[in-house]
Amino acid sequence: MFALAILGSFVLYLIIGAVVGRSVKTTDDYYVSGRNAPTFLVAGTLVASFVSTVSFMGELGFSYDGYAVPMLILASINISGYAVGVLLFGRYLRRSEALTVPEYFGQRFNSKKIQAIAGIMVVIGIGLYLVSVSHGLALIIGQLIDIPEWVIIIIVWVAYTSFTLLSGSKGILINDTIMFVVFTVAAVVGMGFVIGGAGGPIAATEKMTQFMQKPDGISWHGLTGENSYMGSPGEVLIYAITLGIVWALVVAVSPWQSSRFLMAKNEHVAIRSGMFATGALIVLYLFLTLGGFAINLINPNIEPSEVAFIWIAQNHLPGIIGILIVTGIVAAGLSSAASFLSIVGFSAANDILPAFSKRPEFASATAAQVESGGLAKKGRDQSLATANIDVDLARDADKIKLRTSRNVMLLVSVAVLILTFVMPPVIMTIAYFAATLFAASWGPVAIWSTQSRRITARGAIFGMIAGFVVSAGLQTINEFTPYTLPTLADPVILGLIACILGIYIGNFRNQPSKEEVAYFEKLQITPAHERDPKRIRQTGYMAWGVAIICFLVFVALVFFYAIPYGQIVG
Fold it and tell me: Which of 93, 149, 433, 495 has CB 3.0 to 4.6 Å from 470, enough for a Cys bridge?
């Protein structure tokens, strides 16, 4: 049954890609879904591209190990990045009408160099994240179907590569939203059964508080004793807060999150989507973290801990609920994989290739058409007006760019497949390593670019490179060598400091160009249609709705966790 469910999700996935792919006619369709997506679709892709096998396996496994509350603290801080990000960066990004986030940087600083540098960072960072997600999917399916791991990796690769090549952002929007609904229902229902089986939320909290096999596993600092691997209570809290802030910045500016706003119908849709994602994720993580530790009440000896949710689905829950959970986890992984591949492929084709290639299709419509032979053909008919020729040239050049984008994406996907076979399957480590690079290298530059006219192209380049190199270098030492940095010397925090210093050094005795200032001032102008009172009122309703959801989550934590926990521990 589990194998059939997975097969069915793969088939549905490919059908959506094939159907939607037929409507993709231009690079605008392929890259940003025609910029006409409504709130629910943008919010769905925001959550789906954030929640992946890392959440359902790595982070849930972390909670199962005895760090549920630190994980919840981390998640509660990091989702604030949606509100901060869309207000300080996302709405300006939507206003720029760029095809990719690196292209926005290129436009803002009037520099193809910074566009290429940002594009290379996307390919490295998101490419590694995609490897992590691929490993996660292979691990899930390997738990359910007895076939060699290399076969599973190829099947997964063929599925998300075919889908992304066919449909681009249009298909990803629709698929992500479907997957978002599936895995949200799976998490809430599945964890609801686990907690309900323990006697309800209050009884479950009491039992988890007294669970001696993993002492203090439900406390604010997490597991203590010989099996603890996160250090002292103070170090755990510092870790949760620090990484929460870092991930808030990741959510605010990272390409796989902020690029979703480029697809929004307007700026109000972008803002509402960020708010919707905040409300959805706080509820989702409430169930994943506390429910993740509650699995210990059923079986405290699941190894590795990353497969705890899958074990519950197979061995404890009613059949239909188990199938829903497995399908939901696979859905989360597939939707993230497609999103990541599209972002890496788009950057390789749109941001890096033009900087290193002499091929003209990315430079001008006329040159591209001459190369394709179309101009000579049209030159035979002298009756065509010059304006019509220009339109046809632009259209044909766009088709060349669309075809080239798909070819480049296929090459990138093959490279990711090779890396998936070569790199070790440390899901959470690689994912956190890759994702947090963008907080250090892009965070200050992105926010500065929309809030200050004083940052220069040189300052942005120095800042990006300094943040990326310092963060990547120190994280490599921290994660893949015997040496460990002190908790307060977090590699990403040091990378952020390096980025800010790089910006100041690059700005020293350097002034922004007239083009940079003009573009900045253009970004500050709110279009007239965005000031429509009806749209503003609808955005206000969304803000109040999310505030109420967050308040209800807080009340639930007080009554179902804090009070019963406090009564037992005194």
Answer: 495
